[in-house]
Fold:
Amino acid sequence: MSAGLSRRRRLDPGDWEIVLDALPLAESGRIDPRTWFQNPDRPFELEIGSGKGTFLVQQARQQLETNFLGAEWAAAYAHHSADRARRHGLENVRMLLGNAVEFITHWCPDGIVNVLHLYFSDPWPKKRHHKRRVVQDESLAQFHRVLRSGGELRIVTDHEDLWAWYEEHADRNTAIFQQCQYVSPSSADEEEFVGTNYERKFRIEGRPFHAMTLKKVGG
Ligand SMILES: C[S@@+](CC[C@H](N)C(=O)[O-])C[C@H]1O[C@@H](n2cnc3c(N)ncnc32)[C@H](O)[C@@H]1O
Structure:
């Protein structure tokens, strides 16, 4: 990520940050991230690669009855987002510092996530790096497993080749995901798809955006 972070103030992630490396090993059983919130029974949404946490904080402030977990493997951004949520006093936000796909695959229990958010994910444009993209057939199977019945994976990108990759994967996985119309979250400004930092930066550059919603098929 190239967007800079101010170093003027000392960040305090407090109890808002959970470190994946500090969790018990996956071999000892699944860990329910809903227990990291004061009200674990609320609907639960997870953002993969939440960057500076702009969508997470904006949306969580409007949707106080839902718990939001941001997952970010860049420590500076995870700390920044956790500190931001703490300063807003958002008890419905937590940050996971670590690999979101690893967490989902090895720790996350079945059928607990209402919405998975994936916005402006790294495109990894070189062919030999495509295996690093978040969406793969294997990760889609795991996303399907952790979503509740009727749960959704929402995706936005500016990147043409990554968009084609998403479409190919959606077309190949119609047995587990049905493609539906994408609807912007309530926190997005009128002309925005989602309102993340990257979207705002790319909008100034005039880039076109693409979005899709993949709805879980089956229970
Ligand atoms: C291009 S940035 C977009 C950030 C934010 N979603 C936005 O739109 O402003 C992608 C972010 O995803 C993070 N990321 C990529 N793969 C990840 C993974 N598997 N687990 C956690 N974070 C990841 C990167 O560190 C980076 O901060």
About this structure: The chain has a mean pLDDT of 96. The radius of gyration is 16 Å.
